Amino acid sequence: MEAIILQFLNGLDKGSAYALIALGLTLIFGTLGVVNFAHGALFMIGAFCAVTLQKILSLSKVTIDPTKTDFLGNPAKVKTPYVQEWFGPDVGAFIIDWSVPLALILAVPVMIAVGVAMERGLIKHFYKRPHADQILVTFGLAIVLQELIKYFFGANPIQTPMPEAFKGSFDFGAAVGIDPNVIIYPYWRLIYFAFAMVVIGAVFAFLQFTTFGMVVRAGMADRETVGILGIDIDKRFTMMFGLAAAVAGLAGVMYGPINAPNYHMGMDFLVLSFVVVVVGGMGSLPGAVLAGFLLGVLESFASMEAVLNTLPGLNQIIIYLVAIIVLLTRPRGLLGRKGVMED
Questions:
Q1: CA gap 47, 254 in Å, rounded
Q2: Fewest Cβ atoms nearer than 10 Å: which of 19, 50, 198, 272?
Q3: What's the predicted TM-score (pTM) here?
Q4: Three-class DSSP category at 169
């Protein structure tokens, strides 16, 4: 029972990342009809927003402390972050410690700008082109963005530590009446799951209860009719591309403490996130979220030692096996809509 609960929690953790990336992918496909293979790169850029802010906050002023010496007997050089000099040692240390959550503030405008620039500068020229052309051009863009990150930040993973307050683990055993110290789970992974639920809920609420969201949903159903009513639906769809980029970027920011950002992390999630979208149903936002969590949990259980001893390597292929089974039994996916990519 303890192992099952732990693997379920691991599945929610992975499923949160899958669901957030797939949600953004589905927003883009549902509004613009574009198969965006550069979406994983947006997740990567978000993670490096946190890296960038951390580097900025770590910029230090070097002074000489005559009361201390180094190992050669020379006066010691002391580095004091500018943030601590400007705001005081306590406030400055707090800002540096909370660099990852603070990076969410930086990531929102950056990711919206990147998304809008990507859509206006490149992707809008491929709306009426075959999906194969869209895949090729966006995959090429993903490679370019990946290499730019590698050039500026290097090839090695860069640690983005979580705030000190969230280091450590939560004792689920003591909380649910099982023996203590049996089910231990990191606080930050629980925070990531809660964060994912908040973002997913906010996106659905925005689409469901705001006038902007209602117009977008109407445009997804019948773009021509909405245009006849005098609404600039293209402008709203561009803004939705920016929103989808922001969702992917925020997911990347918060994922940094779980898995140190590196230049190929976008590609690592790209194929899996597309499988999630296909399993959930192309164009279906609820399907993307449902499939994300479902496949995350299944992948986690397939990673159990007892399972791997019986079926070695199952955790590497379980998502694709599920995709095959779902598409053989439900060709449109779990919650796919009729007519999407069926022409």
A1: 7
A2: 198
A3: 0.88
A4: strand
Tell me the two tokens of residue 60: 């230090």
Find out whether 8 and 26 touch, Cβ atoms under 8 Å. no
Dist. CA 197–CA 222, nearest whole Å: 29
In the block, residue with structure tokens 């449109």? 332
Distance, in Å, from the CA atom of 58 to the CA atom of 299, rounded to the nearest integer, reads 37
DSSP structure class, residue 158? -
How long a stretch of residues is the chain?
343
Which residues fall within 8 angstroms of residue 16, CB to CB, at 6 or more apart? 192, 193, 195, 196, 197, 251, 292, 293, 296
Tokens 């953004």 correspond to: 24
The two tokens of residue 157 are: 């993973």
Element (DSSP H or E) covering residue 77: strand 75-81
What is the distance between the alpha carbons of residues 157 and 203, in angstroms, rounded to a whole number?
Answer: 30
Q: List the Cα angle 53/119/269 in 5-degree steps.
A: 60
Run means of pLDDT, 10 residues per run, the chain, 343 residues: 81 88 85 82 93 91 74 74 87 91 94 92 84 87 92 91 88 71 85 93 90 81 77 83 92 92 87 86 86 90 84 86 89 73 52
Q: Are strands 75-81 and 60-69 parallel, antiparallel or unpaired?
A: antiparallel
Task: Please give the Cα distance from 335 to 250 (Å, whole number).
Answer: 25
